[in-house]
Amino acid sequence: MQKRKVKSFYLFISSLLIGLFSFPFAFAKTVEKRSKQLLHSVVDSSDYLSSLKPTVVSVYDSLHMNISGINRVVFELAQKGFDKLREQGFLLNDNIISIIDFSMPSSAKRLFIIDLNNYQVLFNTYVAHGRNSGKEFARSFSNRPSSYMSSLGFYVTADTYFGEHGYSLKLEGLDKGFNDNAERRAVVIHAANYVNESFIHTQGYIGRSLGCPAVSPKESSQIINTIKEGTCLFIYSPDKKYLSQSTILN
Question: Do 43 and 12 lie in a common domain?
Answer without folding.
Answer: yes
